[in-house]
Amino acid sequence: MALIKKKKAIFPVIPPLEEFLEKYARRSTIPIHYADLMRYDNAIPLYDANDEDTLWKTVFYSQSEMETIHESLKNIYAMLYANGDLSILSHLAIDRVDLCEYGNTLPFRVRVINQINDNFDYFYIKQADASRIYGLELENILSPNNVDYLVHGQTLIEQHIAGVPGYRFMEEYLGTNDINRIRIAKEFVKFNERCFVRLLGDMHNSNYVIDITPDFEENHYRFRAIDFDQQCYEGRRSVYMPNYFKNNNPIIQMGIELMTPATLKQYQTEERANINRRARVSKEVLADLLWVMKRDRLAPPENVETLKTELGRFYKTKAFDRCQNMGEVLQTSLNELLNYPR
Fold first, then answer.
1. How far apart are CA 191 and CA 203, in angstroms?
2. Could you tell me which residues come within 8 angstroms of residue 98 by beta carbon, excluding any fewer than 6 positions away?
3. Of the residues 115, 143, 159, which one is the last residue of a structural domain?
4. Residue 342 confidence (pLDDT) above 50
5. Has this prediction a pTM greater than 0.85?
6. Which domain holds residue 241?
């Protein structure tokens, strides 16, 4: 069973990473920063439709600041979703600003509402953590998903990732008769493979969502990570494999019942081929990202030593022995796994 023992520290954005963000249009001047949102003067707990505490709290700002803050937040929404086109803002309003006090980066979630039809959307403002930025980029490069984000100084602006939280999916969907269990099991295998390939850890059932898309015959399911703080940080190999987390057992057990070893290997091979293809298509940006990661400190030295030892033993290779940091471990892991026969 995988277990995270300590809360991860926030790693600052180093100059080479800033240059990478500038090169790939991820760095932008923004009208409001994370520290500005911390100036709230009141807060109340946020409850869900079942009157249960969400562990978020809704924050309120003084009348003298609220109009300026809300206008700045709408401008950020336009930057993130409409390439800065402010013409979309005339009928938009900031409905709510929430703060999560249990997350590593203490994120703010901003709810934007369309005043014409009451439709709403979200985005997040967080402390810029280098681990998370690397995780977001690797998600965009190596997975079938895309997450838009912007960085300025120590502030990270991030798009909302829609889907049913993993724990809710298991509680409300997994036991019903109108789901395709083999499709769900297949997608979990692929999700597990993607996390291991790119060394994204801590994918317990609160850190991913399931995106359900109606197909012409049945629903399609995709597992999507929503928390990227544990990118290349932990020292144990099991932390990078969702199938080692106990609270994922309902889906794991379903897969064991429905899939043969040959089927499991087929889905792993398919996903590795997809990752390989994505890596080739994004060869330049991936090379630039790995160059920066190899010059950054993403984990304590003891975590680097433990992980390279465990991966070397897993792949039966001494290639990891030369690794000095997590960036080098990731590059070696990518090289090994994408060519590893199972």
1. 10
2. 46, 56, 57, 58, 59, 108, 109, 110, 111
3. 159
4. no
5. yes
6. 164-337
